[in-house]
Amino acid sequence: MNRKQKFALGSFVIVAAVATLIYTAARETSAYFLTMDEYAAQARAHEGKPLRLAGRVTDGSVEWNPRTLDLAFQIQSIPPRPGTEEAEAIEVVVAEPAEPTATLTVTYNGILPDMFAEGRDVIVEGHVTDEVFVANTLLTTCPSKYEAEVTPDGYGAEADASGQLTSG
Amino acid sequence: MSEIGRLAIVLGFIVAIWGSAASILGGLRRDKALVASGTHAAYAFSALTGIAVLALLQLLLTRDFNVEYVASYSSSTLPLWYTIAALWGGMKGSLLWWTFILAVCNAVVQVQNRHKNRDQMPYVTATMLITGGFFLSLLVFVTDPFERLPFTPSEGSDLNPLLQNYWMTIHPPSLYIGFVSTTVPFAFALAALATGKLSDAWIRTTRRWALFSWFFLSLGNLFGAAWAYVVLGWGGYWAWDPVENAAFMPWLTSSAYLHSVMIQEKKDMLKVWNMVLVILTFALTIFGTFLTRSGVISSVHSFTQSGLGPFFLIFLGIILAVSLGLLVWRLPMLKSKNELESVFSREATFLLNNLMFVGIAFTVFWGTVFPVLSEWVRGVKITVGPPFFNQVNAPLGLALIFLMGVGPVIAWRRASWSSLKRAFAIPVFAGVATGVIALVMGAGNFYAIVAFSISSFALATMFTEFWKGMRVRQAMMGEAPWTALSRLIGKNRRRYGGYIVHVAMVMVFVGIVASSVFKIEKQTGIEIGQSVEIGGYDVRFDGIEDESTEHVEIRKAKLAVFDDGELLGFVYPEKRFYKKPEQPTTEVAIWSTIGSDLYTVLGTYDEASKIGVFQLFLNPMISWMWIGGFVLFLGTVVCMWPTYAERTAEATSRIPAGSKTTS
Questions:
Q1: Candidates A6, A32, A144; nearest CB to B302
Q2: Residues with Cβ < 8 Å from B51, sequence gap 6 or more?
């Protein structure tokens, strides 16, 4: 074996090692990233598996115990952003916007993230056991996505939380 | 004022088109008048973008809420400093700011090269003007920062409270400077390819620029980590979020380039590879901007969704097609005259170092785009989280630190056994000793022990290098130790400045390892007067204070920090409720020492039971990262400071013949 071949072999071994590292790590740590609709379609298949789920916190569903830091809430699917093709398509097909059907209870323990509130979009990471999503991470819509509507009265209204997770 | 700004960006766009066309044509036809016109266009472009930035600044400072951007990102109560920061607080402003920095870089390059690189300059000018023109075109045609509203709001919606932080005023500018200045080496690389002048001239010309952009990328990343750490309140500083990755990837490839370029200078090897790294670094900065602006990959923070994604993707495609096309065309001219001789040589360690950097960059890239790829290929979105990045990058990072300890002392071409033994006796001893000490002291984590041991090995190599050099000077020149050391560094700035940067990187690395492996986290309710123990500290909850101002309500907890019964001081974590927009924010409080940070977050406070819920973290050795940042600054300054020869060359070129400089 000449020098060139040795170096080629050495580089190949290193590249292969890195590739193996990437492959095994990806297999061990990957999780499905689903919207509520996608989840609801195949709820049973995802039972017990690592999951990231994007949904909207249902109004009036938040139960928060500040003593134990136990949080429970419902999430539902995020309606398409008004004005998008998807939203228009739905409006054409169904005269009245359909009530979101799929909901799921999420439990979490910890300090509430600053942006967490009813009606906001969240991403939860964890897994489903007995039809309850046990979240170990709770991510809320992000700060600088925050683009308040400018209205004549000045103060921006609500954060534009809608549609930010549509890619989920 | 908005009309002036608008006019400036429209004119700037036209000037960029003219300037790049004139430059390319002038370069091809060797028409000096056209080339000169291109240069003038470059200056005009800088002036015009400067005017646009000033116009936007003026609008912000005069609080002209009729302008949509001003209304969206500032308010009448926003402090001056953050009003200035609002220039880059929103997407439109940040694009303008980006273009402006690029224009300034371009002007500096024009001045620096007014008497040299004349054949390449037209293409350099063209590349920079096309890039700048692309950014301006977005502002002119797609998203106008000077857009006026049909009505004038009485008040603006204010800069996001999370962005109202001192780190936020310096983090984006340094990151942008780092991003944008990668254009300079890229432009010179393209010019070298276009003109076929592929000697080391372009590398020498852009050496400082490459270091300059690397330095600002480093700072940008560190500042970003610091911002996340003090503002986001989750106890950490890095989450492998796409936004962070976007800034990290160009840093990795640019680090690789800074190393491999030395091989080209010394051994005339790796020419194609260096071109690829320069192109890749620039492409990654555009890709990073695409990531943060397109919303293709959902991130938990700081994503402004906009319709700009496709434009960036097209621009990226053009960049890659043109530069790789030119590279393939010139491949025959880029043949190396030398080849590697032995695995035990400095060249080989540099090669390995590059494989590691690029390996990490690829890992980060893969992890970032994985959700999109999996959706294309399999129709389901699959994400990988921080464990993926940590698992893959930890061994690669360790290998890099190890190579850092090997590279400086191993011989070029081929190292002999005896020289290896001589060079590595002390570092290996230091590494092993550190490992043993860590084990004895109860660091039960395998990774941490290996990491500390390797770090100490690398540090020992650096110090022996300084020591040996100093001793030699002392013996040869009879200099006092400090004189010898400072002259040693002064005469070999790049080498010893580089070592100082290495020391900084080891410090950052040790900080990362210690804080992630030995982190302690506690979530607990504490009644007023009671205390809680965390990692050797006792934390007593002394009470709550409420403050209220016009636009924010502050709830402040007082925590007393004790070590072994001795009161060290107080920290005040806060919860703030902003009234406009209605948003609570967490203000963490940190008791920081060289050994560890006690990081406190106020969750909630219950009046009835007088119980406050806190999240407490003990983050060991985090401050090493920030101190490492200062050392990095020092090392870079040493590297970039003009050498004696350069200073005199510059001086003599200015001073009329006959006069003499003394020194």
A1: A144
A2: B4, B5, B8
Distances in Å between the alpha carbon of B261 and those of A127, B185, B256, B331, B402?
48, 12, 9, 17, 20
- Domain A31-168: assigned CATH number: 2.40.50.140
Amino acid at B93: G
The partner residues of B148 in beta bridges, in order of sequence, read B67
Q: What's the mean per-residue pLDDT of chain B?
A: 88
Q: What is the ipTM of this complex?
A: 0.76
Closest Cα in chain A, distance from residue B45 (Å)? 30
Give yes or no for B589 touching A (CB within 8 A).
no
DSSP assignment of A56-88 equals EEPTT--EEETTTTEEEEEEEPPPPPTTSHHHH
Cross-chain CB nearest to B340 (options A7, A33, A153): A7
B572: containing domain: 520-623
Q: What is the pLDDT of residues B518-577, one digit of tens each?
A: 999 888 889 999 999 998 899 999 999 999 887 788 999 999 999 988 999 999 999 888
Chain A residues in contact with B362 by the CB 8 A cut-off are: 18, 22
* A6 Cα to chain B: minimum distance (Å): 9
Q: What is the pTM of this model?
A: 0.89
Taking only residues 95 to 124 of chain A, the set having a beta carbon closer than 8 angstroms to any beta carbon of chain B reads 109-112, 114-115, 123
**pLDDT value for B339:** 72
Give the pLDDT of residue A161: 31
On whether residue B112 sits in a domain, the answer given is yes
